[in-house]
């Protein structure tokens, strides 16, 4: 019977069928969406109406006031003069009154893992640059030192450096900022580095220092073991923030012991929570949790007299900074486009059309300056041939085509942002970055492996999708060229950073450490910071890549000593031309020895997005390492 | 004709009529065309499923490139003669990715539903038939799982066991994790439905008869109860499959799915709708349209086919929501 029935007849006979219900629901949903979409703009009209009414009322009131003033003054000229006088008086009281106030809205991908300026510099710089005082900022593009916590410095002789501290500074709890505090803050960096067996600070910035001596209440003298050309620039980094010794003593966490040259043992403490009173910067920490941080203006902040470039005599214009944790770049971009963020420093060139024609944001093109590196575990790749094989197994032209579609270039060990020091041409660099799978396979087969490498794991932070694409490209290239299994492991940035420098065992649980995206980046002005530190056997070469002087693998140990000596020599050379020649030798050595890690091609330019309300942000400072220390930036209300 | 003869003839005719009336009708051959006419939506769903299966399996010969290969075309190229569905920001071919991604959806979906439905049915069969404390305990465990959001279960499993799972033939570690996570999500629901059926069947006369003649509990469950659950199992399977595919896409969207990198990694529609692709959706809408459309078509196909299958196998449910 049923077989002879027509489907449509049967469908009609049903009072409520499953399908009719689904169809009805779909139609209802579509209809509702259409109605909502159609009515969406009405809300704005409703809001605009009272706003317009208010504006009209305000205009009317202003006219009435003006009329009353005119009447009271007797005639128009007198009224105008009175108005002008009042305005002049107001401007004299605070010429920057219209710039003061507002909240700077920033974002970061993860919450910080600690705030001690001597331990971490991951996801915490917005707090350190706002709540702490540094000696000064250094602006590489202008070769300018702008004084902050110091008022001057002097190189007395090649190994003696003297600081003059700004008088009248206080920590947030009222304690005086004096030479004892500054010497303590600088001196603890080496001790922390030793106690923790490596920190995120650039050790080459303080490894040459014998002592920091408080010579009088406002003077600190550095005594060096050997000359160092970069010391002044290093001191602009936030590691050298002034930290209140009393807070470390009262709230510090024991991290380990440090043995002084005379054999005495000192217990070393960190202040990862940065309790109130630790800093003396223009802001105090008002909120810090998993959703982000908020810093608010500290009313007792010292005067900057005279105010150098980027500083303001009466302290920063902006009242507060709010930094939201937004793990997803796409969500951050949406927030930026919606006007909820003031800076989006990761605009992909491919998405530029999305930003065009928007009045409330602007995109600025800057030299890229970033890096994209592949660090090799010296525990496995102690034989130079294995490292060379890895580098020859990556198709660099394909990499540029896939990942640098708007122009890519080979990266030298030193950033191109330091043209006074980086002298290797693209043609010269191309001779080292040559894809040759056959040679790579031969080198791999001939190489000696103390620890068998059956599979190559690339370990990276999950904070950047672009970095994952980079690692994936390298993994695929290695798999093809070396006929070996590869894997990309991505984890959150804090875990990644901790595991990257974990020294609990002498062989890493990864083969390659992927780091950097090779787009936006900056320079502190020091060749070591950008980026010789990645090769330094006393810095990342040691704690991240197992290429260090004390290595049990004799080839690594010998090479580490050689490169350390070369790095010391160039650091001690104060003549720029002579130093550039030494740095070319260092870079050539690194590239010839395939030392420690290698750089993938980087972008030629990168793009920063700023909200139109943010003024005088100093693009070059944002690009470089002093982005957050610019007190003269302000937000339009 | 004598009275006796007449009576005998009438008796034979009556017997013949009776035999005709009570005769078991000959089994009708399944006619797919007739079924398609009766269930046109179901047939359409079947065509869609067939299309998805064909495109997924035949992907390597359908003008595709390795789905994860970089720079197959220019970055973010719109649909064109060389790249029919356009390219990604890294020049990967979207057509190839959509086709190959069908494999992972079907594989995870089918494996999940088989495990979830079979597991749920088996547990229901044993616990409901055993009754008492066993039934009570299993019921509470199922209640517990139902009360925990599936995504939470997936997250916990991801952080706890996914790294330790082995690679199985045809099912990589991460795929196995997905199968387990999604199955755990479906199993308690299947158990609930099946338990009711077992309780009903347990009281059937033929089960009592089997008990009287001394059949073992295992034999009764296997020979008399389980076969009568088969129809319902198919119905549940057909309804769960699209939900499983969507769940896989959701987990991949959240970054808990299959590995998205590597030379041999198989893309997933859910993963392609998330990750770095999302930031280019407004400038390159094809990145969202084609994987989204493939996902929608597959789920729609399975849904309407499953609905018709339910009508066909269990006419009592026909027309009910």
Walk me through the structure:
- The complex is a heterodimer of chains A (637) and B (321).
- Chain A is globular.
- Chain A is of the alpha+beta class and 637 residues long.
- In chain A, helix 3 (42-73) crosses helix 4 and helix 18 packs antiparallel against helix 19 (576-593).
- Chain A contains 20 helices and 24 strands.
- In chain A, strand 17 (455-461), helix 15 and strand 18 (485-491) form a beta-alpha-beta unit.
- With 321 residues, chain B is mostly helical.
- Chain B has helices spanning 3-22, 32-38, 40-57, 94-130, 132-147, 150-160, 173-202, 205-212, 217-225, 230-253, 269-272, 286-313.
- In chain B, helix 5 (132-147) crosses helix 7 (173-202).
- Chain B starts with a helix and ends in an 8-residue tail after the last helix.
- At the A-B interface, helix 2, helix 9, helix 12, helix 15 and strand 18 of A face helix 2 of B.
Rg of chain B, Å, rounded? 26 Å
Q: Tell me the strand percentage band of chain B.
A: under 5%
Which structural class should the secondary elements of chain A be placed in?
alpha+beta
Low-confidence segments of chain A, given as residue ranges, are 40-59, 65-70
Number of strands of chain A: 24
Task: Quickly count the helices of chain B.
Answer: 12
How would a crystallographer describe the biggest sheet of chain B? none
What do the pLDDT scores of chain A average to?
87
Task: Tell the overall outline of chain A.
Answer: globular
Q: Cα distance, first to last residue of chain B? A: 63 Å
Count of β-strands of chain B: 0
Largest sheet of chain A: 5 strands, mixed
Keywords, please?
heterodimer, A: 637 residues, alpha+beta, five-stranded mixed beta sheet, four-stranded mixed beta sheet, 24 strands, 37% helix, globular, B: 321 residues, mainly alpha, 66% helix, flat
């Amino acid at each position: 019977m049923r077989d002879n029935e027509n489907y449509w007849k049967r469908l009609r006979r049903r009072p409520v069928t499953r399908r009719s219900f689904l169809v009805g629901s779909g139609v209802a949903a579509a209809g509702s969406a259409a109605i909502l979409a159609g009515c969406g703009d009405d809300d704005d009209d409703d809001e605009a109406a009272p706003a317009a009414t208010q504006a009209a009322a305000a205009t009317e009131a202003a006219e009435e006031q003006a009329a009353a003033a005119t009447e009271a003054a007797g005639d128009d000229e007198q009224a105008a003069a009175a108005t002008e006088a009042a305005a002049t008086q107001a401007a004299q009281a605070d010429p920057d009154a219209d710039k003061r106030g507002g909240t700077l809205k920033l974002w970061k991908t993860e919450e910080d893992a600690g705030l001690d300026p001597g331990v971490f510099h991951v996801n915490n710089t917005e707090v350190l640059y706002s709540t702490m005082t540094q000696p000064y900022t250094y602006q590489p593009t202008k070769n300018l030192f702008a004084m902050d916590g110091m008022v001057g410095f002097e190189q007395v002789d090649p190994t003696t450096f003297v600081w003059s501290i700004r008088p009248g500074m206080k920590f947030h709890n009222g304690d005086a900022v004096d030479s004892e505090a500054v010497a303590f803050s600088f001196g603890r960096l080496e001790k922390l580095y030793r106690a923790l067996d490596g920190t995120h600070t650039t050790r080459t910035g303080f490894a040459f220092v014998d002592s920091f001596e408080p010579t009088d209440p406002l003077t600190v003298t550095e005594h060096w073991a050997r000359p160092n050309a970069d010391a002044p620039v290093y001191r602009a980094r936030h590691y050298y923030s002034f930290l209140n010794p009393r807070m470390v003593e009262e709230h510090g966490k024991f991290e380990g012991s440090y043995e002084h040259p005379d054999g005495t043992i000192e217990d070393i403490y960190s202040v990862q929570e940065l309790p109130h009173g630790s800093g003396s910067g223009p802001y105090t920490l008002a909120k810090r949790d998993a959703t982000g941080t908020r810093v608010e203006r500290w009313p007792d902040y010292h005067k900057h007299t005279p105010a150098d470039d980027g500083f303001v005599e009466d302290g920063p214009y902006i009242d507060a900074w709010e930094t939201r944790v937004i793990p997803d770049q796409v969500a951050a971009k949406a927030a930026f486009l919606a006007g909820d963020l003031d800076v989006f420093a990761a605009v992909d060139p491919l998405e530029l059309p999305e930003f065009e024609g928007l009045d409330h944001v602007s995109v600025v093109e800057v030299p890229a300056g970033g890096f994209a590196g592949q660090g090799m575990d010296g525990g496995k790749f102690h034989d130079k041939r294995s490292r060379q094989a890895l580098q020859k197994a990556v198709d660099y032209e394909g990499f540029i085509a896939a990942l640098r579609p708007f122009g890519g270039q080979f990266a030298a060990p030193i950033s191109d942002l330091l043209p006074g020091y980086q002298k290797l041409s693209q043609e010269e660099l191309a001779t080292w970055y040559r894809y040759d799978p056959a040679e790579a396979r031969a080198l791999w087969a001939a190489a000696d492996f103390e620890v068998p490498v059956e599979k190559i794991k690339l370990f990276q932070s999950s904070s950047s999708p672009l970095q994952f694409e980079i690692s994936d490209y390298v993994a695929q290239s290695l798999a093809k060229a070396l006929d070996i299994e590869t894997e990309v492991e991505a984890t959150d940035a804090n875990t990644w950073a901790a595991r990257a420098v974990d020294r609990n065992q002498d062989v890493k649980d990864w083969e390659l450490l992927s780091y950097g995206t090779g787009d936006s980046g900056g320079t502190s002005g020091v060749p070591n910071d950008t980026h010789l530190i990645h090769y330094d056997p006393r810095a990342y070469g040691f704690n991240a890549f197992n290429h260090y002087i004390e290595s049990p693998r004799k080839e690594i140990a010998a090479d580490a000593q050689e490169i350390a000596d070369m790095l010391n020599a160039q650091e001690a050379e104060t003549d720029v031309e002579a130093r550039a020649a030494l740095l070319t030798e260092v870079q050539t050595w690194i590239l010839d020895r395939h030392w420690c890690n290698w750089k993938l091609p980087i972008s030629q330019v990168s793009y920063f997005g700023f909200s139109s309300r943010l003024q005088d942000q100093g693009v070059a400072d944002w690009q470089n390492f002093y982005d957050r220390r610019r007190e003269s930036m302000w937000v339009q209300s | 004709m004598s009275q006796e003869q007449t009576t005998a003839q009438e008796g034979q005719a009556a017997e013949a009529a009776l035999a005709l009336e009570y005769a078991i009708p000959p089994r009708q051959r399944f006619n797919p065309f007739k079924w398609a006419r009766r269930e046109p939506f179901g047939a359409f769903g079947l065509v869609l499923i067939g299309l998805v299966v064909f495109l997924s399996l035949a992907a390597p010969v359908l003008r595709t490139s390795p789905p994860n290969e970089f720079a197959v075309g220019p970055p973010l190229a719109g649909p064109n003669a060389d790249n029919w569905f356009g390219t990604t920001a890294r020049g990967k071919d979207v057509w190839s990715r959509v086709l190959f991604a069908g494999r992972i959806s079907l594989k995870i979906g089918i494996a999940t539903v088989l495990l979830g439905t079979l597991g749920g049915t088996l547990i229901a069969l044993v616990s409901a038939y055993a009754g008492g404390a066993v039934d009570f305990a299993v019921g509470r465990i199922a209640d517990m799982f139902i009360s925990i959001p599936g995504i939470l279960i997936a997250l916990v499993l991801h952080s706890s066991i996914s790294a330790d799972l082995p690679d199985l033939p045809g099912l990589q570690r991460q795929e196995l994790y997905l199968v387990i996570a999604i199955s755990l999500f479906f199993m308690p629901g299947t158990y609930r439905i099946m338990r009711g059926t077992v309780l009903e069947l347990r009281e059937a006369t033929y089960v009592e008869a089997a008990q009287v003649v001394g059949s073992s509990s295992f034999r009764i469950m296997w020979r008399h109860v389980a076969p009568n659950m088969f129809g319902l199992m198919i119905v549940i399977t057909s309804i769960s499959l699209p939900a499983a595919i969507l769940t896989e896409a959701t987990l991949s969207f959240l970054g808990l799915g299959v590995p998205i990198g590597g030379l041999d990694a198989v893309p997933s529609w859910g993963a392609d709708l998330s990750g770095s692709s999302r930031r280019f959706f407004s400038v390159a809408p094809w990145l969202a349209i084609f994987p989204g459309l493939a996902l929608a078509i597959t789920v729609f196909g399975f849904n309407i086919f499953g609905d018709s299958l339910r009508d066909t196998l269990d006419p009592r449910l026909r027309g009910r929501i």
